[in-house]
Amino acid sequence: MPEGDTVYLTGKRLRAALSGRSLVRGELRHPRLVEHDLAGRTVLDVATVGKHLFTRFDDGRSLHSHLRLDGSWHLYRPGMSWQRPAHQARAVLETAERTAVGFSLHDMELLPTIEEERLVGHLGPDLLDPTWDETHAAEALRRFAVRGSSELGLVLLEQRVMAGLGNLYKTEVCFLLGLSPWTLVRDVRDPGAAIALARELLLRNADRPQQSTTGELARGRQTWVFERGGQRCRRCGTRIRTAEQGDGPYARIAYWCPRCQPGPSPRPASPRNDRRRPSPVGDERRQRW
Composition bias, kind Basic and acidic residues: at what positions (predicted)? Predict the structure, then answer.
């Protein structure tokens, strides 16, 4: 699932393309929304909360969308060919200058703007909230601390604790903290530093398509351990291990260096699960804008 910085960048680009402009075409092709035509509406803003997008219109309504695993928004000049098949389009918002197409958007809702909180009110503080301050940090810390008996890797992914982290940043935060993803939250010596680090990594990549936690942008050099199972640790040379963390459909592949990240750990993943999985995050951030 795309990370919060991917959604933030998507919202920023949609805002620049659509905000303040009237729609000459406003098709919603989701089964629950096909009767709505947004042509003639003016886009007031595009806002993001964690991994949620809200496109706000001048009639007091907002279009909510969530990218999930395979959703994306593309921007085109009118008349340009789309990069994905038309049958995957769930929303087409077109102005005189730009066309925004939302592909494979499974979660969509048209709702009063004043009711947006109904969809995101349960979330923890948004790590990319432009108004982030000590109050946000304190609330994230409170939500983090009450999950003391849970595994660090799972809590970092819990959007009700803090919104925006996905498996890439969860993995890299654990490495940079020097902690196994299976470390219990109550054993994290400085939880405030963990939250600050998570926000720092997202901010570092929020305004560019490339994602890097190492400070390098060259292909293959952008992460410390994420998607590097079986390769040598960049710090100590130990082979990076992988295993599933979580249960059922919520399980994710965890990557960690057993030397740099001491602590509890499960058995290594089987060869079938140890294969490198393609990252939808990277694919969507390289889309044509």
Answer: 272-289
